[in-house]
Design brief:
Structural class: alpha/beta
Helix content: 40-55%
Strand order of the largest sheet: 2-1-3-4-5
Number of strands: 5
Length: 142
């Protein structure tokens, strides 16, 4: 029989990505990496939305442990979403990994809006996993 400590830590991730193929690669990749690299000690639950406005709406229903955010999206881009997110009163601010193929301009935009980590596309899933583990182990100060 398993004890309470044998259960994996559940990590709720809000994935904000307008490309469904990229979203699927991230979800499948992180699930596989959690089983392989973290020996099943972490289980990810993903809420996937396609733009920043949908993400803001979703935040009224969930309290994610981590947000993975594309910078360039329709309706509301990642930087605008981040500005709204960081303006919300929160007990402890949600860590954010921003993603883009937009180079230095995208990096500057995301980091100045409040991202904790910026990763260039095309993604390396080991970098996404390492950033997630680091952010979840060392939460952002309130």
């Amino acid at each position: 029989m398993q004890s309470e400590t044998d259960h994996p830590r559940i990590v709720r991730v809000l994935l904000v990505e307008d490309n469904p193929h990229v979203a699927e690669l991230i979800t499948d990749g992180l699930d596989g990496a959690a089983r392989r690299d973290l020996n099943g000690r972490v289980a990810f639950i993903f809420d996937v939305v396609g733009d920043g406005q949908m993400a803001l709406d979703r935040l009224n229903e969930i309290d994610p442990d981590l947000i993975i955010l594309d910078v360039y999206m329709p309706v509301m881009d990642g930087a605008a979403f981040l500005r709204h997110l960081r303006a919300r009163p929160q007990q402890s601010p949600t860590p954010v990994i921003a993603l883009s193929a937009g180079g230095q301009a995208a990096r500057d935009s995301a980091m100045s809006a409040g991202a904790d980590v910026f990763l260039d596309k095309p993604l390396r899933l080991n970098e996404v996993m390492a950033a997630a583990v680091r952010l979840l182990s060392n939460p952002r100060p309130a």
